[in-house]
């Protein structure tokens, strides 16, 4: 044990006048702090004291918080029905009419498409070609009566072909016939109402409605903590002091989600009306009818070629010698036979007819349901749910007190090294163990005090004892 007590120059500045000046500069956040430093302690000669901050004390308590109130689960057992079958007429009987179409046979008819005519050609042989209009005009100019020329008669000169025009002629290709049209029987679609489920009473469960809310629970109240700050140095007996700032640490809260009842569950007794099913049925409105329609004959237009004017010639007869020089051109009147084509036409072989058939009505079985057992409800109670929350409550407030400290005048290199080594062993000091107590050593002291719940503000005797130095 040391026989003398020491005080550092850094903490000797925290005397009463400086404390009063600092306290006056803080806000209402200091109201929770207890200041027990109004008077200096009753010290013995050679003892030194420093004004230190004793931290507030807290204890942790657990509390049960309701997160979901007691509720009720309701199950509805539905009604039971018996099934039965019922026969109804789904479609009435009617008369079905079938049409047998008429049958036709093919016949061919030869139709003249071009009448027989005559034509002036350059030769009566196979190599003869039609004479040109210039040749025929030359023949007429030379007093040749072309209109009275005989078939097979030839003239020498130019040939002018005859003119033709085309006309149309209607030729019967399908005789007039008769078509039988049958109007099917007409039905009216109606619905027949059949009760398939009797009226009953139904219990409808409307579940309770819950909503989730968030509740903010204080688990640690707000507190004020003294920390060293920067500012002017107060001079007391040629010793320098340090400025202490009171920092407000806000309260700690925990957000808890709670399920609260919004609307309780209810059971409503609902009248369930009987269920009727509409069954489609076909009602005969009118029976089938027969209508005979005449189909007119069909004709086909064909093109006929008719001669408009004969060819004209200005040549002399081939057997008549005439004046002049033979040009080498010759025209002969040649007969062109008529042209025919075969046309196919359809002739009625068997006329159309009808057949009638009676269709029987159609019956249908449907299922119906009758109430056997009414619906019932089953209720089950669901217990409330709770959550355990930890709350930190303050036992004693933070306070300022005078505590004995180690005086700097008696702090030699040996004791300083022992303090530094003890701090290093505690894991709060990383500097050199050189016996020089500076800012690094004092910062480690304050860290050690906070870690062990000791008063901060100076190198107190309690701290030295905790370090095992004393």
What count of structural domains? Answer: 2
| β-sheet strand percentage | over 45%
Give the CA-CA distance, first to last residue: 5 Å
Spatial sequence of strands, sheet with the most strands: 8-25-9-24
Morphology call:
elongated
What oligomeric state best describes the polypeptide chains here? single chain
Mean pLDDT: 75
Low-confidence stretches: 1-29, 229-243
Helical content stands at 10-25%
Gyration radius from CA atoms, angstroms:
67 Å
Structural class: mainly beta
Q: Strand tally, please?
A: 31
Major sheet attributes: 4 strands, antiparallel
Separate helix tally? 6
Polypeptide structure, described:
The chain has 470 residues and is mainly beta. The protein has 2 domains: 9-69 and 213-262 and 388-467, no CATH class; 102-185 and 287-351, no CATH class. Helix content is 12%, strand content 53%. It contains 6 helices and 31 strands. It has a 4-stranded antiparallel sheet. A 3-stranded mixed sheet has the order 1-31-2, with no helix packed on it. A hairpin with a 2-residue loop joins strand 16 and strand 17. The longest helix has 13 residues, at 413-425. The radius of gyration is 67 Å and the shape is elongated. Mean pLDDT is 75; it is low at 1-29 and 229-243.
Give a nutshell description of this structure.
This protein is mostly beta strands and 470 residues long. It folds into two domains: 9-69 and 213-262 and 388-467, no CATH class; 102-185 and 287-351, no CATH class.
